[in-house]
Every structure is written in structure tokens, then in C-alpha cells.
UniProtKB/TrEMBL annotation:
It comes from Bucco capensis (collared puffbird). Transmembrane segments: none annotated. GO terms for biological process: nervous system development. SUPFAM superfamilies: Fibronectin type III. This is Protein NDNF. PANTHER family: NEURON-DERIVED NEUROTROPHIC FACTOR, PROTEIN NDNF. Residues 1-26 form the signal peptide.
Length: 559
């Protein structure tokens, strides 16, 4: 079988060998040796296949050559060559090595005639460059073959090692390896929102002819456009993300790496490649030529590339990429603060949106009060555009500020947790009677392990220098309820939200010496080996309560 194959192609190889050897006569000895070495390489690896896409790896500054001879029985037969750079710009050329017909006719008769022609130096060869290109775009050359010519393709990368794909075909009647692009291959941006961009493009003729085997795929990123799918995949790999061959675009069985997220909905496939440099999102939407890209960030520039993909061959063609900048996020609604009025704000932790408040001072000295109800909240206060306070709120927090009349204060609130947060805000002049009670140095409740019994628990908490009312409440809970109880507590709610049976006692207490402003209480009548949730409420002059941090204590099981 191998011998049959060899004899089948022998005439073509003899022709090419004789043609190359014909040029040795005019060369120097060293050049002849170099030429013979090139001839050896030609026979082993440098023949370009017809009708097949070939991947070529290039080393920096080292040219690589491929040869091909077209069907000698067909004069002026059409052929096309498509070269796709997969990374950096390259240089490539097509050279035609041509000799007279009399030489080619005698060259195939045998070595004796070939030697005679060489001695007489008849039929000199002519080498001409018929095409040259430098860049990183996909480029296609269409030409007419000559039965008396040998063709050479030369490739060179001057920036770094890279790879390209080369496709040679002489069959222009049985369809195309690459899907066709429309006459106008541009992508049009027809809609821009804060988090969406809507794109449309003209249909590929391949989609209209072979709908079941063709689909569109969209690439979205924040860096730049890609001129080929090959270049896009190379860039994704080089950024540290592993990308399986023809990821998602051929709809082959999916293999996702840890850096990838796949979303499949409404017959659309979306694969997001995550890296420190950002996201590269690939979306395949079948044969739809209009698509709205969701879940983008506001005020961000994105680059969009559309590829039409042949699912049978995995070959693709790129539309002309485009870019668009999403709209800026609208300014949050600003709420005006009034002297002494309490405003409660609920914040969305997942979107981490800011909530803005504004206050125009009618006094030189003012005080902002923040009571955290739930979650975690960051507070940013500016005066006439300059920052005067920035802090995370825990419990009750006061900010005393000094300025001028009619100074404008802006307050921005943001949840620092994924769950929703809530906070109460009040602003008032310094001489204004505060609605919230003056808090102690700490709002923690302490329990004494050595004083625990089977039916009693002793707790302690800090008081203030003002005589105030303190009320203690207890609630029996199960072991699996502890986390939920502590997370769901609303620290702005007062005793009115509690069941009457949970009330333990109320007492008045104060001490002018902050070091001695500590009170204890022993709660009796408890069940052995049981968990209890204890809360203490501090009531100020206005009657608005301040809730201490809840404390969970378990009574002893055996006494």
C-alpha cells in the first residue's frame, strides 16, 4: 500500500526535485549545500496540504517556508490561501518559482536530459513575489495557478514565538471551510444601558444556507477587540485561564476549568472566564443576529466581537469588532435631613448601592447620630465636598462637627455585608435635646460562668453617668437557633416587639464614676441544661431605647 502511494505521487515529486536541482548550478559551493539542506527539509515537512487547515508554529526571527505545486493538468486553475495569526502580527509572502515549459518537459524524462539542460544552462528560472502582508488580521489571497510554477509560502514572526493557521484549497465548488461574512461585516450598537448593551449584525450567507450547522458566538471583554477566534483563545490562555480547544463555540462536550462559569438559559450558552485582569465572556446564541448583553458594570468600556462558527469543521470567521461604554450609574436619590428628625434607611448589600442624605446647617455646631439596626454599615460624611468622617458603624455612633452657618453636609451610607443592612440617622444642633440615650463605653453583656446554676444565671452590663431605665428580657432557644437569632436581631426594635412573658425586670441605675458604672442581675426560675437569649434595653430621656448586644447563656445541666 505504501509503495502504491509512493508511485502515485512520484511524477509530482520528480518534477519538483528536478526543478529545485536546476537552480544549484548557479550557486556557490556553500549556497549549494544550503540549498540541498532546504531540499531535504522540503521532502520531509514543508509540503502544504490542499484542502486542510495546517497549524504552523513560528520561532521569533526564524522564517519558516512551505511549498506547494498545484494540479499540473489544469492551467490557470483558481486557488485560495487563508492565513490566520493567533497572537502577534506576522509577515508572510507567496513566492512563485517559474521555469520554461521546455525545461519542465525535459526534466521529467530522466537524469541524463536534466544534466544536459543544466550544462547548457537553458531555461533559466524566475522567482517573483506575488503577495506580501504584514499584520495580525485574517488575510486571504485568491489567485490563478500556472502548471509551470512551484509556489513557496514564507512566514516570519519578529515579536515572539507564536502560531498561525494556514488553509490552502483549489476546490472552489464544494463550499467553504470558513463561514462566509456578509458584504457589511460590521457590528451595530443599537442600545446602551447602565448594565446592558444591545448589538445587531447582518446575517452570514452561511447561516441562510446551512442553518443547522452554523451559529453565532459573541466574545465580550474590557481590553480590546480580537481579529480571530484563534487570537482570542490564545489571549485567554496567556492571561492564566485554561481554555479547552474550541471552548463552547463548537458545542462539543463541555469541560470547564475552576476559573470558568457556564450559564445555559433560553438556548443560549454563556461561559465566563475569570482572571485577575477581568472577565472574558463567551456567549453562543444560535442563529439570532440581535443580542442584548446583560450583567455589565456601569460606566465601563466593553469590546464586542462576533464570530460565525461552522459546527462541523469548527472553523470560524470574525465580524468587524466594536466597542461601547455603558451609562454611568444614576445618582442615588438624595434625602433631605431636618433638625431632630430620625430617618431609617434600608441598604441593599448585594448591589452595595450608596444611599445619600443631605443637610444644610442652621447652627455652627451639629451632631450626627447613627444607630445600627441590622448588618454592617459604612458612613461617609462630607462638608462642602471635603471628607470630615469615615467609619463603620457598630451599635450607636455620634459625630460632633463644627462649621459655619449654611454649610452643606452630605452623608453616604453603604452596606458592607451581602445581606441587607438598616440604620437610623438623626442630625441636630449641639444644644438640641438628643433623642437617643447617651451610650456607655461598651454595649456588651457579660455572664459569669462560676455563678451559673441549674436554674439561674448572673449577667452584668455597663451603665452611664445619667440615671436611666434598664429593662432585661430573656428568651428560651434551641441549639440550632443560636446563629439565626443573633443574625436576625433588629437592634433598633424596642421591648414593644417582645412577648410580655419574656420580660424579666426593669431597674434604674447610674454612677457618676464611669469606672463603677456597672450593674449585675441574677435571673432565676430557669430550666436546667437550657439555652437562653438575654437582652438589655437602655431608655433615654426621650423614651427611645438602645439595645445592648444579645447574650446567649446555657444553664448547668447537673448541680
Amino acid at each position: 500500500l505504501k509503495m502504491s502511494w509512493f508511485w502515485l505521487y512520484l511524477p509530482l515529486h520528480l518534477l519538483m526535485a528536478a526543478y529545485l536541482c536546476h537552480s544549484i548550478k548557479a550557486l556557490t559551493t556553500s549556497s549549494q549545500q544550503s540549498f540541498k539542506t532546504g531540499l531535504f527539509n522540503f521532502y520531509h515537512s514543508l509540503i502544504l496540504a490542499d484542502g486542510k487547515e495546517t497549524t504552523v508554529h513560528l520561532l521569533k526571527d526564524i522564517p519558516k517556508r512551505y511549498y506547494f505545486v498545484l494540479d499540473e493538468s489544469r492551467a490557470l486553475a483558481p486557488f485560495t490561501i487563508t492565513v490566520t495569526p493567533c497572537d502577534v502580527p506576522i509577515e508572510w509572502s507567496i513566492l512563485m518559482h517559474k521555469a520554461s515549459a521546455s525545461f519542465l518537459g525535459k526534466a521529467t524524462q530522466g537524469d541524463h536530459d536534466t544534466q544536459e539542460i543544466s550544462k547548457s544552462q537553458k531555461a533559466p528560472s524566475i522567482v517573483s513575489t506575488i503577495f506580501n502582508y504584514k499584520g495580525n488580521s485574517v488575510e486571504t489571497y485568491m489567485g490563478m495557478s500556472s502548471h509551470s510554477a512551484l509556489y513557496m509560502l514564507e512566514f516570519l514572526s519578529t515579536e515572539r514565538d507564536t502560531h498561525i493557521t494556514v488553509y490552502l484549497t483549489t476546490d472552489t465548488t464544494s463550499g467553504h471551510l470558513y463561514p462566509e461574512l456578509p458584504m457589511d461585516p460590521r457590528i451595530d450598537v443599537i442600545g446602551i444601558g447602565h448594565t446592558t448593551v444591545t448589538l445587531t449584525w447582518k446575517h452570514s450567507p452561511s447561516v441562510l444556507q446551512h442553518r443547522e450547522n452554523i451559529q453565532y458566538c459573541l466574545l465580550v471583554n474590557e481590553k480590546h477587540n480580537y481579529k480571530s477566534l484563534c487570537a482570542a483563545e490564545t489571549a485567554i490562555r496567556s492571561s492564566g485561564m485554561k481554555l479547552p480547544p474550541a471552548l463552547a463555540l463548537s458545542l462539543s462536550p463541555y469541560h470547564l476549568e475552576p476559573q470558568q462559569v457556564m450559564i445555559l438559559s433560553n438556548s443560549e450558552l454563556s461561559i465566563i472566564n475569570k482572571a485577575s485582569s477581568g472577565e472574558v465572556r463567551q456567549i453562543c446564541m444560535g442563529t439570532k443576529n440581535t443580542y442584548t448583553v446583560p450583567n455589565l458594570s456601569p460606566s465601563t468600556q466593553y469590546y464586542f466581537d462576533v464570530f460565525v462558527v461552522n459546527l462541523l469543521t469548527n472553523a470560524s470567521a470574525a465580524f468587524t469588532g466594536t466597542f461601547a461604554r455603558t451609562l454611568e450609574e444614576p445618582d442615588p436619590k438624595v434625602t433631605e435631613l431636618k433638625d431632630g428628625k430620625v430617618v431609617q434607611v434600608v441598604l441593599d448589600g448585594k448591589k452595595q448601592k450608596f444611599y445619600s442624605l443631605q443637610y444644610q446647617a442652621r447652627h455652627k455646631k451639629i451632631q450626627f447620630t447613627f444607630q445600627l439596626c441590622r448588618g454592617q454599615v459604612q458612613v461617609h460624611i462630607t462638608k462642602n465636598g471635603k471628607t470630615v468622617a469615615l467609619a463603620n458603624i457598630s451599635g450607636l455612633r455620634l459625630f460632633s462637627l463644627k462649621g459655619k452657618l449654611l454649610d452643606t453636609y452630605s452623608v453616604q451610607l453603604r452596606s458592607t455585608e451581602e445581606s441587607n443592612s438598616s440604620v437610623k440617622v438623626q442630625v441636630s444642633p449641639h444644644f438640641h435635646k438628643p433623642l437617643f440615650p447617651l451610650p456607655p463605653e461598651s454595649l456588651k453583656i457579660k455572664s459569669f460562668s462560676k455563678l451559673r446554676t441549674c436554674n439561674s444565671v448572673t449577667i452584668a452590663w455597663l451603665g452611664t453617668q445619667e440615671e436611666s431605665k434598664y429593662c432585661v428580657y430573656k428568651k428560651r432557644i434551641e441549639d440550632d437557633q443560636v446563629w439565626m437569632e443573633l443574625q436576625s436581631v433588629d437592634r433598633c426594635s424596642g421591648p414593644e416587639s417582645r412577648h410580655k412573658s419574656e420580660k424579666v425586670l426593669c431597674k434604674y441605675f447610674y454612677d457618676m464614676n464611669p469606672q463603677r458604672a456597672v450593674t449585675t442581675e441574677t435571673i432565676t426560675g430557669l430550666d436546667a441544661g437550657t439555652l437562653y437569649l438575654f437582652d438589655v434595653y437602655l431608655f433615654g430621656p426621650s423614651g427611645i431605647p438602645l439595645r445592648y448586644h444579645s447574650k446567649v447563656v446555657k444553664t448547668r445541666k447537673n448541680c
